[in-house]
Amino acid sequence: MSDSKAIQMKKALLICLVSAVTTTLFFSCKKEEPKHPNILFIMSDDHAYQAISAYSDKLLQTPNIDRIAQEGMLFTNACVTNSICAPSRAVILTGKHSHLNGKVDNYFPFDTTNVTFPQILQANGYQTAMFGKLHFGNNPKGFDEFKILPDQGHYYNPDFITKKEGKITLTGYVTDLITDMTINWLKNEREKDKPFFLAYLHKAPHREWLPAERHYKEFINRSFPEPTTLFDDYEGRGRAAHEQEMNLLEHMNWAGDSKIFPENMDKLGIKESHSYDKANYTNTVGRMNPEQRKVWDATYGKMNEEFMKRYPSMSRTDQMKWRYQRYMQDYLGSIAAVDEGVGKVLDFLKANGLDENTIVVYTSDQGFYLGEHGWFDKRFIYDESFKTPLLIKWPGVIKAGSKNTQMVQNLDFAQTFLDAAGIAAPADMQGESLVPIFKGQGQNFRDAAYYHYYEYPSVHMVKRHYGIVTEKFKLIHFYYDIDEWELYDRLNDPNEMKNVYNDPKYANVRDELHKKLAALRVKYKDSEALDKMYIEKYKELEKSGKIFR
Question: Cα 218–223–225 angle (5° rounding)?
Fold first, then answer.
């Protein structure tokens, strides 16, 4: 071989070596493409934001739920479109307002032709599972696995509708069982080569509130600060606030809610608040086995004995204060198990290396009254039921310890999850993706939220109403058997004690909000014609005896 050929071969070899090294360096330095994130959606039922210590520590410490905010974002103005259980879930699944998805209240059936975001995730390679309370439908679409409570479910020894085993009954406390199911799925049924969407849905703290044994023994001896509006007389507000049936003293069940034994009610001459008062107690506590019931009766029996001694001399003010404490003891005691369960699931994610690529959401299907305005339950557009807790973490995307004050809604979840997964949302979804907010880019997000409540006349007798809410103001129209408007200054009147609709100082604000509300009704395809249609359909259900009064 000539010297020139040898030199050429050496040059070619050198070029190949340089090219190989360069290619190796390029690929070793190149960032890996981000994987599709897992999504863990945790939702409790009727969990008031006031009962999460990330929002306020006056009532309860929730250190595990708080971890999500500490490692992610706390939303202080998150809200719902319709504050009632099943409709809220339908909005979340479809990304559509109630008047379009058909589930306007707890009586109307869910339109099963709706496409839900879990179906879309599943069709795009996500493994999907749901454990806990769905509230409607026995065969949720888009889930590879599910174990759900029939309707409201039970706190003790609950039944579950399952995808693979039919109907089953388990022994134990419902919150613990749902947590165990969730962790078992993550540990034993998760396909490691697929991203997952996992719905971890608690029954607690839905009425009637039965804490776990380890918690009711503690909480029954605790006392809690009263809200400043506990004895609200609704002066200056309309008929809706006056005619509701949500008052702690007047409408809360003595047996089912406050846990006064039915026989003790008879001895004291206390009448049932509703025809189902004693029956609710019998049906819920009656789920317990002998061992569970023995401890329950011993603990609550002592409370009953003390109440029987006090009751004859109690004024109505005394009774109201007592009922508030009883309410808080059981309601907050029920949340304690939820917080423990959330902690166990978060710990599992971390211990198994899943936390870094998992979006974790904690929310409730709506807010709840904890004695504010003397009330329990939800339904109103007023803040305690309209606002909902929302805490989200997504490592590497959401800045730890951040807060957001914008008007985000449960309407936004479907598009948010699809966006995070890199999937285009259907054009008929009505929410907005929160991903830009996660990344600090959502400065021009929604400036007003739309709300519409339908379930009237029915339990709690909260009148039909719709409204617009901005960060500063709230305009409400109550309709059907009345035609009244209310306007609240959210910044200067956070407790919503003064309706300023007819105050001349707010005339310009009122007129501007009327225009914006009309525009929102058009934007979301709601109308007076739909209002009337749903009223007529509701009357048909009422005539057939399907409405719970």
Answer: 140
Percentage of residues of the chain with pLDDT beyond 70: 94
Identify the pLDDT of residue 484.
98
pLDDT digits (tens, 9 = 90+) for 261-292: 999 999 999 999 999 999 999 999 999 999 99
Let me know the angle formed at the C-alpha of 404 by 399 and 406, rounded to the nearest 5 degrees: 145
Is residue 199 within 8 Å of residue 121, measured between CB atoms? Answer: no
Residue that has been written with the tokens 């009244």 in this structure: 484
Q: 293 vs 177, 301, 529, CA distance in Å?
A: 18, 11, 52
- Residue 355 tokens read as 């936390």
Helix spans in 269-422 (H): 277-285, 290-310, 316-351, 383-386, 413-420
Distance from C-alpha of 414 to C-alpha of 430, rounded to nearest angstrom: 9
Q: Residue 135 to residues 85, 176, 527: CA-CA distances in angstroms?
A: 7, 19, 27
First-to-last C-alpha distance (Å) of the chain: 103
Phi, psi of 14, deg, nearest 5 = -65, -45
Judge whether 473 and 489 are in contact, CB under 8 Å. Answer: yes
Give CA–CA dist 209/188, Å, rounded.
32
pTM over 0.90: yes
For the record, the structure tokens of 494 come out as: 């956070």
Local structure of 146: helix, strand or coil: strand
How many angstroms separate the Cα of 197 from the Cα of each of 42, 66, 101, 121, 204? Answer: 11, 22, 22, 8, 21
pLDDT in tens, 35-70: 799 999 999 999 999 999 999 999 999 999 999 999
